[in-house]
């Protein structure tokens, strides 16, 4: 199988300096997700994989020190990776990568050995899609195009609100992205409801709510319950994500020998710090790195995600921390969001509704379950994630989808 992967992750040399070059915080969730996809495809048997990226660098001169992102080609195992070079000056960088991308995509298509080619692009993008379909128009190779859609751009914009010039320009760009996204053969959705936007129809899409790189799993399973309950939340501290609702439920519950641990950053950080100073049972850790978050997830006994189902966008969203939480092997409680597949129901505890009272009731039910039973359920959830949601298994499903 010939596979061409298109993305926007950072190549090796740029990754080493991206934080130092950038003014402000650099997000790596998309970068890590794409590397997991690449690793998943590379691990499949009889795969000839090539990768092209146009890295998501912030603009020069206000947000990045680099006026030019250099061209780079390297091998990682048997995979050829090409990172296109482009002018990174603000405004110019919107179109500068287009021709280099088109050229590299066409080169890869023409260099593949005989046989069909599966093209997998991560995330709707006017830049990547335009370059891709221009290259396809210039080749005689038979291709199947697949678009991985981790979120719906229109919903993410509506979620942030606003009607500034910036938002209007973003909406105009989203309209263009939507038109280009309609040209793909197959789709990989975060939730099945995403087909409301893309109308692929049965047989032309699959749901992949997440994936993990099992090669990076070295943590030991949780040690088990030691007498003190620890409820933990790790994530963005926004009211819309329900973190203050969790605090309210915790304080209403009056749980004995129980602590609430919170990690993250966001608009509620100062309020949470004040809550921690008022109530010794609440511990606020601030923003922690991924390794520290995993450590705390294993030390805790109950991992909570209080995000509610308010807003249309929740139908098109699957909280990534669900997989992260279940991987810890500990008990997980969260609201039953519409984008969560039924296969998770055996591993997650859902309150009857999103009220503080319902959360208190469910937390008390959980704490009344014998520790051995909770551990058995938690370890079954961990095994479910490792077995069913690993990168190779998910990428195999993408290949099978393209063959239909």
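Q: What amino acid sequence fits the structure above?
A:
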């Amino acid at each position: 199988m010939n596979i061409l992967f298109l993305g926007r992750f950072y190549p090796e040399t740029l990754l080493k300096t991206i934080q130092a070059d950038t003014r402000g915080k650099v997000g790596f969730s998309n970068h890590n997700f794409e590397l997991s996809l690449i690793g998943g495809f590379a691990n499949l048997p009889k795969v000839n994989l090539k990768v092209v990226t146009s890295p998501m660098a912030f603009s020069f001169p206000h947000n990045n020190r680099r006026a030019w992102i250099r061209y780079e080609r390297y091998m990682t195992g048997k995979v050829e990776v090409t990172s296109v070079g482009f002018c990174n000056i603000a405004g110019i960088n919107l179109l500068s990568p287009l021709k280099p991308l088109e050229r590299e995509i066409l080169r890869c298509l023409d260099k593949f050995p005989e046989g069909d080619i599966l093209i997998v692009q991560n995330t709707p993008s006017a830049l990547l899609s335009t370059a891709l379909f221009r290259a396809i128009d210039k080749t005689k190779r038979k291709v199947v195009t697949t678009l991985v859609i981790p979120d719906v751009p229109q919903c993410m914009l509506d979620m942030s609100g606003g009607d500034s010039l910036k938002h209007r320009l973003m909406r105009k760009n989203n309209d263009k992205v939507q038109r280009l996204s309609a040209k793909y053969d197959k789709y990989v959705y975060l939730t099945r409801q995403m087909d409301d936007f893309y109308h692929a129809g049965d047989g032309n899409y699959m749901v992949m709510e997440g994936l993990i790189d099992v090669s990076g799993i070295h943590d030991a399973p949780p040690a088990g319950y030691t007498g003190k309950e620890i409820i933990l939340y790790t994530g963005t501290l926004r009211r819309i994500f329900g973190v203050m609702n969790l605090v309210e439920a915790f304080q209403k519950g009056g749980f004995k020998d129980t602590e609430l641990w919170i990690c993250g950053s966001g608009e509620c950080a100062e309020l949470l710090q004040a809550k921690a100073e008022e109530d010794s049972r609440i511990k606020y850790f601030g923003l922690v790195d991924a390794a520290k978050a995993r450590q705390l997830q294993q030390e805790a006994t109950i991992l909570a995600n209080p995000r509610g189902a308010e807003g249309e966008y929740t139908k098109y969203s699957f909280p990534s921390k669900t997989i992260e939480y279940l991987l810890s092997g500990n008990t997980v409680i969260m609201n039953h969001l519409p984008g969560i597949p039924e296969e998770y129901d055996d591993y997650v505890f859902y309150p009857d509704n999103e009220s503080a009272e319902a959360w208190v009731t469910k937390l008390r039910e959980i704490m009344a379950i014998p520790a051995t039973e909770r551990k058995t359920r938690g370890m079954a959830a961990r095994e479910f994630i490792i077995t069913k949601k690993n990168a190779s298994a998910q990428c195999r499903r993408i290949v099978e989808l393209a063959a239909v």
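Q: And what stands out in the fold?
A: The first strand starts at residue 2 and ends at 7.
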